[in-house]
Amino acid sequence: MKYGRICYVLLLLISCVVLNGCTKENDSSKAATNHTLSLQNEAKMISYSKRLDTLLETLHIISNENMDSDVRESKLQDFTQDLNLLLNEPESVEMKDGEFAEQFDNKLTVITKTFQLKNQRLNVRVVNYRAPNTLTGTIGGKYTFVQWWSAKQLVHAQMLNDDGPELTTDFVVRDSDHGIRLMLGGYVSIYHPAPVFVALWELSGQKWTQERIVIDKMKLPDLWYLNKDVNEPIIFENRQHDSMSIGVLDHRDGFLINSDHSDKNITIEFSRSGEVCIDSEHSISSNAHIEQQSYELIQAKYSEHGIVIKYPQITKLKDTAKQKSLNQILKTEAVKGLHEHVDSGTEAHVEIDYEIKRQSERFLSVQYTGIRYEGLYPHMDIRKVFVNSFSSF
User: 387, 364 in Cβ contact below 8 A?
Assistant: First the structure.
């Protein structure tokens, strides 16, 4: 028994030593793994920083007019390729647009937007680089990159335009029956704001492909000219050579092109089925004139617990089923988001009214403005813009 107890104690001691050794070994293994990951992250940051520094040095050579033109052209090709690689790095999305442009001596134009699509929230950044005119001339030397990510670990980038004329100033991303679409709008040359272009791209896998825009049936007023020699992108000009501007429509389905001295605007709308429609309308800046419509608007009111919301409703539309559907949308949009301005459990009086900003056969734009009162004093100004696009009446 005595020897048995001694053996038992020895076994316990050996077990403790072994277990302690294993624990230390596991801790040591974890520490080694963490240290390795830390070194890898540090190496990535150093690599990214070095790549950024190299890009800046290349950019300075391209901008140096005293340098040999062949060297500058070679460096221009290196710069665009390396910039595309940099935009594929997750670290690049950490910089805001202004910081990103400033890093490159403001030689880049950077626009970032976030879009809520059906299955994901997608961030999209469009980067423009315009090479010096002394090297590429006035038409060429514009490079467009698109960068997109749903999470920082899933960053992708692609050069869409290689030494082409377009300079993107605004864009739209949305779901369609064909998948995710990217609509670019901007100017064709440095002689902007005329002419302007609109281009359509679709995402397949992890690559954007430019799609042809059918323009055979599109009609424009006499003052406007549509370049039909090219299908991608389509180019608009004004025959009077007026100043032009292009921007995204409020409902984010296309673009509105303005000419400063013309009473007409051009609307390019992309439907979900893939159709592209061009509509010519009187200037939205002229509130005195509204086209004769095949429908009328009346005022409706939502009132409950001190909340009063006025909103428009459509009448005299031939398609009664469509009229009912559109009126439900108008009502839903008018009251949607009210909880953002009124806290549950508090007594507040809210008054919201609307103004028709744009009305035509195809579009109805409504702006809501309101005030919330708590006690005797106004507490908050509420502004909301809702634009509904009608395909037909």
Answer: yes
Give the list of residues 6+ apart from residue 340 with CB closer than 8 angstroms, or none: none
174 and 253 Cβ atoms separated by less than 8 Å: yes
Q: What is the mean pLDDT of each run of 10 residues along the chain (393 residues)?
A: 52 52 56 49 66 92 92 94 94 91 91 89 94 83 93 90 86 86 87 79 91 74 73 79 80 80 74 72 41 77 85 88 86 72 62 78 73 60 46 41
- Specify the DSSP element, H or E, that contains 12: helix 2-63
| List of long-range contacts for 316-322, beta carbons under 8 Å, 24+ apart | 317/393, 318/294, 318/393, 319/393, 322/393
Report whether 385 contacts 365 (CB < 8 A): yes
The rounded Cα 215 to chain-centroid distance in angstroms is 25
Beta-sheet strand order (sheet of 108-116):
108-116, 121-130, 142-149, 155-164
Peptide bond into 132 cis (omega under 30): no
* Cis previous bond, 378, omega within 30: no
Distance in angstroms (rounded) separating the CA atoms of residues 18 and 182: 62
Q: Which residues, 6 or more positions from 142, have their beta carbon under 8 angstroms from its beta carbon?
A: 128, 129, 130, 131, 161, 163, 164, 165, 166, 167
**Cβ(329)–Cβ(320) below 8 Å:** no
Please give the helix or strand (H or E) that residue 171 lies within, else none. strand 167-176
Q: Which residues contact 115 (CB under 8 A, 6 or more apart)?
A: 121, 122, 123, 124, 173, 174
CA 183 to CA 14: how far, in whole Å? Answer: 72
